[in-house]
Amino acid sequence: MEDDDNDCTSTMYRILTVERLVVFIAATLSASPESTRSHDPAGRTVLVRSVVVDPGFRRRGITSRCLQAYVGEFRKHNRVMVFSRKELVPFYEKSGFVMKGKSLDVDGTTDELLEMVLEL
Question: N-acetyltransferase domain spans which residues (predicted)?
Answer without folding.
Answer: 1-120
